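Fold this sequence, please.
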Amino acid sequence: AISSKFIGANEKFSTQVFNKSEGYYNYFLGNDPTKWVSFVPLYSSVQLNNIYNNIDVRYYYDQGMVRYDWVIRAGGDPSKIRIKFEGQDGMYVNAKGDLVLQTSLGEVEHTKILAYQMNNGNQSIVECKFKEEGNGIVTFDLSNYDKSQDLIIDPLVWNVFSTYLGGYTTDYTQAVAADVSGSAYITGYTYSYDFPTTVGAWDQIYNSTDAYVTKLDPTLSSLVYSTFLGGTSGDYGYGIAVDASGSAYITGYTSSSNFPTTVNAWDRIYNSTDAYVTKLNAAGSALVYSTYLGGSSSDYGYGGIEVDGSGCAYVSGYTTSYNFPTTTV
């Protein structure tokens, strides 16, 4: 178990609850009726007011995950927020500014920090990252913002979940991505004819060695969709990214002359072993686009893939083709 506590917080603060549910809990613990409690109400969130001077924190669940928002009111100093984590084997802040807590069962991430202010109904983003101070203590590293307006800091906590994914034979995972809700997107390749696919997915028919794309819910308890991706020869998934709409972008390489490509794609002609770039719609049911990428020799989408805010894909890998397509400046 990993626990956290606030260093230097106010000893006296008020508690506020929101959105009472119709449901309730009853507690009949032990054989002493004086300790039994009935009709304990449920609320969607709870807020600790003035946990630091002019700073509140609200806890709630969102799609099965713990969320909490810091509310920095006018006059509040976010540098006063110091969170100490205990119980982890180690911790570090990665290159993206996300906080990673290491355990023997995997990693728990405080990631995708969204800090913003509202101005006439519009959301103004404030750059925010975690900063490690040692001894398990972290703070927030913020860019400039309007001190006269409320500032919201919204970290996303990723819980540790684990699951097998595969069929009867050998299956490989090569890359994993996640969206803002915590859903996992996985690609790799499989030798299993019975690799799990879902009804309505783009391709439910196994051919040879096939690439696959699978989306799991945030708790890794169910498949949102799962599809094969490839032709009649060997196909391999090695990189995956996801955009704000939930569309998945996949790269890898293929030996299939009939790897699925789309009309008006950059390159629909198979040469040798070719890299590919494919975009699936958010439901995993159709190709938005799919193209070969390479020259007359072997080409591999092997390093990774990223997507920017406008939906442009950036792919890396390597090639043995002297005529791999390049562009002029």
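The chain has a mean pLDDT of 90. The chain has no helices and 23 strands.
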